[in-house]
Amino acid sequence: MKKVLILPGDNIGPEIVTEAVKVLHRVDNKFNLGIELDYAHLGGAGLDAQGSPCPQETLDKARQSDAILLGAVGGPQWDHVERHLRPEQGLLTIRSELDLFGNLRPAIMYPQLAHASSLKPEFVSGLDILIVRELVGGIYFGEPRGIRTLEDGQREGYNTYKYSESEIRRIGKVAFEAAMVRNKRLCSVDKSNVLEATVLWREIISDMASDYPEVELSHMYVDNAAMQLVKQPKQFDVLVTGNMFGDILSDTAAMLTGSIGMLPSASLEKNGRGMYEPCHGSAPDIAGQGVANPLATILSLAMMLRYSLSAPDAANAIEQAVSAVLDQGLRTADILTQGTKQVGTVEMGDAVVAAL
Question: In the annotation, is 334 catalytic?
Fold first, then answer.
């Protein structure tokens, strides 16, 4: 029996997760996986139901699970709450408490969607990038942090950007090993010309290269990497970077593929247990309308089956089903192009189930 915890989250979260769960039930029956589901609250849903964006019950269930599927958290309806109660704090808490340090964000261009990208098709056709982002360190978690009043009465906000050698080595290991099973090219992204924390980052990643002689390692400053992702994205295979830079670059890479609604992600701890979620947010502007794209969540489910549940055949089947649905010309509004048919959230989920 494999235990999967479902965290629907906020706004469109429950809508897209419902479709992914339908797909999970289908592959569970088809491949006899023996999956047991449980549910809990995270984000605004946790705050509303249990007074915390990451209730203790959620953490307890998460620790007892083999994998976690998350929808999305956050929304303007919680803008008024104190900072430590904001939905996003729930996400940061569960990542930290479970030590989900390795964030894998693939940016894959489905050939059916080449014309949905904001770039010309020749720049993105065949695009297949993996961004490996360190997820529980860096400036998002560094202490001290806060807002203080100076002697002259001005207020000052401050955050601490820091990484230890062990934190860099463990995310570097994930990235090098990912490159080994792909095209053996790794680009490490930093800002070592001005940030000492990333001077150490570059030193450690460079030192690790000797353990992976087959991998071609390069380094790039983050501002140049952002430019190169738009200028010539297919030059990259695997990128590895810290928390803040990875947050920004992965969203940039996502849009190269036509829609952030197509991009899954995995957040892994050292033993392979992980939390899987779409790269997009909770989209409060379309919540409840039945138009959200569930494919990123469904593809996150495929990653979950591959990385945490040791079910690669089921993962492949889901990815092939998504491709088959796109071949049929079915599109949610975010990936709609001329000559294709617009469908809603439920219809897209049903189509993937049917393709399975």
Answer: no
- Sequence-ordered alpha helix ranges (H) in 257-311: 295-307
Res. 16 pLDDT band, cuts 50 70 90: very high
Whether 211 is a known active-site residue: answer: no
pTM: 0.90
Question: Is the pLDDT higher at 86 or at 257?
Answer: 86
List 28, 61, 191, 334, catalytic entry = 191
**259: pLDDT strictly greater than 80:** no
Q: What is the pLDDT of residue 320?
A: 97
Instruction: Calculate the CA 336 to chain-centre distance.
Output: 23
Please say whether the beta carbons of 72 and 280 come within 8 A: yes
140 has catalytic annotation: yes
- The active-site residue out of 110, 140, 212, 307 is 140
Q: 247 catalytic, yes or no?
A: yes
